[in-house]
Amino acid sequence: MHSTDDEDRVAYLGGAALEPQPRVTPPPAIVKPPPRAGFPPAPPRAETPPEAALRPVTPPPALSLGETLRPVTPMSPHGTWLQGVPVPAPSSVMRGLVPGQTVAQRYRVERWLGAGGSSTVYEATDLRQDVRVALKVLAVPHADDALVARFRQEVEHARALEHVNILRVFDAGVDGERHFLTVELLDGVDLRQRLLERRATLAEALRWLTHATVALEHAHGRGVLHRDVKPANLFITRTGVLKLMDFGLAKSTHVMGTTAQGAVLGTPEYMAPEQVTGNPAVSPATDLYALGVVAYELFTGQLPFRHPEPVPLMFLHVQERPVPPRTLRPDLPEPFERVVLKLLEKRPEDRYRTATELRSALARLWPRALQGPAPTLAAPAPPRASLRTPDPGGHTG
Q1: One GO MF term, please (predicted)?
Q2: Residue 243 assigned ligand-binding role
Q3: Neighbours of 312 (CB within 10 A)
Q4: Are residues 207 and 168 part of one domain?
Q5: In which residue ranges of the chain is pLDDT below 50?
């Protein structure tokens, strides 16, 4: 494979096919002595022919909802593929924060909330404003400059993106060796957890997709591409509002890029073909493709493509067509399937041109989402005599 760079010197996997290797004549077979008495002979070792590496990648069979949503791709706990290798898990060298501890003489830690690939999140009180916030601490001690810059640029992106469907980021700072962010404290669960609990109704799925689309419409209108849209970055509050989170991998016309040359950005299950190959450059249609994968999950309970290794998985997005959603869920209305398949088109120009256009398409689905399941028609009852006479309006009396 070769790599190509965009204007921010981001390199992507993709391009040339593998060259076939010349067949090497194997050495003469070595005659081994017979096995010792009482020991069974060792089974013969299967050899993979060289041309097997050149065959197109084929997806494995469909799995159940629980199996589909279980992480199988080797990557960071946060689920993001960076620079061709998983982000290292948080190191235990730096001790975690404890309740009552103060960060930057301003944020008092209340309790631990969770941990991702490179950060730990706590509930904290902003002593200056007297409000509760989420304190996100970079958990890698002595982190390199690029990782710290990517962590801090979330604030720069968020300052241009004040919107009800986008997580608010308040502050960034350093306390000793700890780099931290403070963001609004949310009550609810992310969409990944919700998908593990149960399948969404059509109305729920359509509402969440609409909220995510509106968030992307706002971001794209201000020159920001998210580049990592996935259920783990879509948070559903207890009041039913969806919030788009984590702009650490975002690309913006306002913020200097921090991506190293040769890096691959995104999560393999949700990467658009151009995000894998680098041609054409990423665009708003890239985020819409990822949202199409999310929509596929919401409506079918499965991912469109799966593979145990990240690179073949990414190339399934480039090479293969997804199984139509109605094949997996026959009761799904056909207009819903059309929207999903249009979002998952391989060429960006074949998808919706903008998030605004997608929002209009989703709005046209509401009558079908609010319509209940088709009633079951009972067998007609045999006619019987009646003493009641139908009135002219069709009623009996």
Answers
A1: ATP binding
A2: no
A3: 15
A4: no
A5: 1-22, 24, 31, 39, 52-54, 63-94, 254-263, 374-397
